[in-house]
Specification:
By secondary structure, the protein is an alpha+beta fold. Helices cover 22% and strands 28% of the residues. It folds into 2 domains: 2-191, Electron Transport, Fmn-binding Protein, Chain A (Pnp Oxidase, Chain A), CATH 2.30.110; 209-341, UbiD C-terminal domain-like. Residues 10-205 form the 3-octaprenyl-4-hydroxybenzoate carboxy-lyase-like Rift-related domain.
Length: 370
């Protein structure tokens, strides 16, 4: 475990060039969609420190460029960077921030991963790569950043300087309308001699971010299973922009366990923002929508097996919620119901090919000429 902790170095690749007159102007920042408000940094890893514990966070938040040295930080209310900002603004209007461009895969993964609260993201990156990352000190702010980054934009976010951010074509497939967010002021730039600008384009799914989301889904299944042992598999389909829909299969042992699983998942970090959760039996492939639809339509009674929770947290980007950050959840229990759950009918037997016929056909398959 000790090998996973970050190690502070005097210099690194990202310190090869230190810009004394920082500006966004020479960075190839994209404007992705026709009605975007301007250019946006879409894959910047935003580094902050918890004002009381000094635990470091990395998060990916979109950043709208205003001019050569100012940008808008889209800190959604539920994100950890926004929590650091909220704590500090009660004492000081400014919080130091480093926007990190590029780096090792483990560091980038750490920035998008919903790790448990209180775990230092730099340490998590070291755990992911089985060796601690190297860090260097920023030049104009009191933060450490990954030494192998391509570029670091140093500055501060000022809670006293609020401006309208957006619109922006986001990963829901809709333009997020204008909303007030705090301003980032650029104070310094460190970079490699020939940096690569890491960015991404988001929009109506399925796009590039789908693959990152799938990696997170697979990586955090063991944690979900540790906290909820009944879980067999878990899927967040990219078409549901990940926060929109989750499908989970369980090995059900007692009445009402599907609803228990829903509630448990809604209580886990960023899964609190998931709009719809469908629970199916262990033998349903959660990654095959045909099987999921079959389970929902054959094992769900609308009155008995749906749960609606009103006035619950929602993703800031949800275009359907009646209010920003507040809406409702839908849970669908698509597991086979038992007598203990009030199912009074005989459970119908599923149609399956008998084993002997299957073996015979499989053994002769190559001779069929198909």
């Amino acid at each position: 475990m000790s090998e996973s902790f970050p190690k502070l170095e005097k210099s690194g690749p990202v310190t090869e060039v230190v810009n004394e007159s920082p500006s966004f102007d020479k960075i190839p920042i994209l404007k992705s969609w026709p009605k975007d408000a301007g250019k946006f940094i879409t894959f910047g890893m935003v580094s902050t420190k918890h004002p009381e514990t000094n635990v470091r966070n990395l998060g990916v938040y979109r950043i709208q460029i205003i001019d050569s040295t100012h940008a808008l930080m889209h800190w959604q209310k539920h994100k950890r960077g926004a929590a650091h900002y909220d704590i500090l603004k009660e004492k000081d209007s400014k919080i130091e921030v480093a926007i990190i461009i590029g780096g090792e895969p483990a560091t980038i993964f750490s920035a998008v991963a919903p790790v448990p609260e209180g775990l230092d993201k730099y340490l998590f990156a070291g755990i992911a790569r089985k060796k601690g990352i190297k860090t260097v000190k920023c030049r104009t702010i009191d933060l450490e950043v990954p030494a192998n980054a391509e570029m670091v934009l140093e500055g501060y976010v000022d809670s006293a300087d609020i401006r309208n951010e957006g619109p922006f074509g986001d990963h829901t497939g809709f333009y997020t309308p204008q909303e007030p967010f705090p301003t980032f002021t650029l104070t310094g730039i460190m970079q490699r001699k020939n940096p690569i600008y890491l960015t991404t384009v988001v929009g109506k799914p399925i796009l590039e971010d789908a693959y990152i989301g799938k990696v997170i889904e697979r990586s955090f299944l063991p944690l979900i299973r540790m906290l909820h042992p009944e879980v067999v598999d878990f899927s967040m389909p990219p078409a549901g922009w990940f926060q929109g829909l989750a499908i989970v299969s369980i090995k059900k042992r007692y009445p009402g366990q599907a609803k228990k699983t829903m509630m448990g998942l809604w209580g886990m970090g960023q899964l609190a923002l998931t709009k719809i959760i469908i629970v199916v039996d262990h033998d349903v492939n959660v990654h095959d929508m045909n099987e999921v639809i079959w389970a929902v339509t054959t094992k769900t009674d609308a009155a008995r097996d749906t749960v609606i929770i009103d006035n619950a947290p929602t993703d800031t980007l949800d275009p359907a919620s009646p209010r920003v950050n507040l809406g409702s959840k839908l849970g669908i229990d698509a597991t086979q119901k038992t007598k203990e759950e009030g199912f009074e009918r005989e459970i119908q037997e599923e149609v399956k090919v008998d084993t002997d016929t299957k073996k015979m056909v499989d053994s002769k398959w190559s001779s069929y000429g198909l």
